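hi got a favour to ask and not much time before my train. below you get a single protein, a line of residues and a line of whole numbers that encode the local backbone shape. could you go over both lines and see whether the tokens make sense for that sequence. a few lines back from you is plenty, here it is:
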Amino acid sequence: MGPQGSLEISLLGGFEARLPDGSSLDIPTKKAQCLLAYLALQSGKAQPRERLVALFWGEMEEKRAQQSLRQALTYLRKSLSPLDPSPLSVDRNTVRLLTDSLKVDVVEFLKLTATGTSDELAAAVALYKGDLLEGVRIKEAEFERWLDAERHHLHAAYCHGLLALVVMKRQSGDLAEALQLAQRLLDIDPLQERVHRMLMGLYADMGMREAALKQFERCRSILAEELGVEPESETLSLYDFLRSSVRMHSNDQRGSEPEQDENNEPPTPPTPDLGRSRQTWGLSAIGLSLLVAIALLAWFRPWSPEVEPASLDRMAFPLPDSPSIAVLPFDNINDDPEQDYFADGITDDLITDLSKIPGLFVIARNSTFYYKGEGVPIRQVAEELGVRYILEGSVRRSGEEIRINAQLIDATTGGHLWAERYDGTLTDVLGFQDQVTRQVVSALEIELKTAEDAQFDGQETDSPEAYDALLHAREHIRNYTKEDFAIAISFLEKAIRLDREYALAHTLLGGTWWEIANDGWVRNFGLTYEEALEKARHHLRLGMKAPSSEVHFFRSKMHSNEGRYDEAITEARIVVALNPNNVNGYEALGRALNKAGRAAEAIEPLQNAARLNPRGDEKGWLLYRLGESFYLSERYDEAAEAFEASVARNHSEWTYLFLAASLAQLDMREAAAAALANFDRIYAESGEDPFTVSRVEHWAFKEQADRQRVQEGLRKAGVPEGAKTEQNLNYAQDVTPMNVDGATTVDAEQAKTLLEQGIKLVDVRDLADWRHGYIPGTLHLSLFRDFTDAKLSAVAERDEAVLVFGSGIGANKMAAIAAARAISWGFEKVYYFRDGIPGWKAAGYPIQVPPK
């Protein structure tokens, strides 16, 4: 048995670990020390090895990183060997540090600050000997991000503790101690104007009015010297009050009447501006008693966090010429995490409103939401996103009552431009975004034209319940799963029941139905492709009653897929005109230009989108679209780089396919084969027929040269040819799903009659679709695998009638292409069953399912 007692780990102000006998724990490397520190702060929770590797060896090749983790754990086991049992628990997948016999100063510090009595707060302040792991640095970006966030949180708790002690000491009459603690706060950051006001008030409480006035002069001098600004109005008001008090005191000493204002009333102290109170430190570790104590400081103005100025030299991107801003996710400070959707919705609307302002550069939602819940310093956010201004805030909701705090920060100076608090009901929130947007515009001195200013005067709906339902729906739409789409649809339908004219609800509902149809999820919703598409078109038409960038975005995507390229480009340009910071608009424009055979023109808008969204979209589709532009422009090295970055995020089969083609064009055959193997594996899991080069013939490119360029890369990568045809059918112009030149279009009843007459009915769907049910007595020749001149001739003579069908109108136009091919091969009598399987089912005719 080893020594009994606790292992003591001190992390505030550096790193030190002591065994129960008081001897220091010998840990040979800084990474092992940091690993022990990280485990000690995880409350005994098991940590996945993958998480530890990412934190401490994120830049290293996977195998070497795992080996380095094992080595660090070996160091820790050896160092902790005097303890029996060892607090270090390691298994194949996880690592954790047992907390039963462990004392960590950080944990004790947070407990003391949460309790919040005077003695315990004093003990907490004494424990804080410096920043977390001060002086201990390792060159690992992921760990440094975690460490910065933890330091920020703990420093905030320390400053709150000091602040609360000032209040308590003042209440108990210990003004000298309160003064000393306030001075310590000012030592932390001499630019904190509100602490100068606090000291002015304390000096006044002690009867030291001249000292209070001198504190004002020190405040004014340092603000002018360091920031080039004058004191805030609250500081000036307090100064005027104190100066009047000094004059009254002097008059009293001389036996004179006190000085009065023109209304014959004595001067009154300034009223605290509670509406502008702001707190942005994480408060999870601070108890209710401490919050109550902090509230007592209204007269002095609550402490705000230290905001270290961002460095222009460290900016990841050059600052735009126009004012640039990022809106961080507003904190949900309810106890109920279910209210996250509401705080996120407020943030989304602010980003959307600000994005519409010409002359303002606004970072996209995906990049700012990367920081949600991370507690990252303002400086770091500004430097990583390349912006000057940061808007942040919090939301508290209790039933219908809402409180929203917002503040605008100039990250390059660390100064607050303004802060406001908005109290009201859910109904009042509908106008809240307009107020904040106007404040930002005013603070950044952006001049609006009449038409631009008018866009803030209207609201999408007067129904707060409908707005709330839409926020719920948007949260689920972003998850982009069949299950979330179903939930989103129910919320959007609820919003429309509450407000029939709610254009944005119609737009999002139409867009959701279009995504369902486009992704082939219609079966999950009990609809045909055509029915889902009609729902999409119906609601988008209603959305056009109050045109928004969202409705034009979806219209652009629809036109692109339907081969209506010029219309798709026009719609995308409207999106950008309505919202010059809309990432989706630039992405839609790039997509439409790619399809229209103008890939070189697509690169610039897609790069604009990437600058607006430095963190990228979660699934890497923007990078995919940029890679497509590079590929079609024959810039294969840049295409491969973009597809590699994209596939790291989405692991999509289509990204792997384009990556394989790009690498093959660069003669990197081995890497191309590896990418193709990944594509084949994922594609096979979907149940589809094996992919062939011939499938590209129906891709929605206007120019045949673009399809040929893709086919060339796929052939080099090793993709099989498939059902090759010499006929190059232009997807958009040469074949339409409505009618095929030279073929006779028939309905379900006519198709049934022809089948009964012995005419060959050929099903050209993929095998996966065929397995869900087929028309008894028909043949199956998959369009891109089996449907060739030779195979069709084997079942029918040139002068015999044949009927081809597929999944119905718009289902990749497979049946239309098959009918056109049959005619080109010389078949004299071709019937085109346009409604396909959906039409057959709708007529009540039988469907047979093959045995498994």
Remarks:
- The radius of gyration is 34 Å.
- The mean pLDDT is 82.
- Residues 141-172 form the longest helix (32 residues).
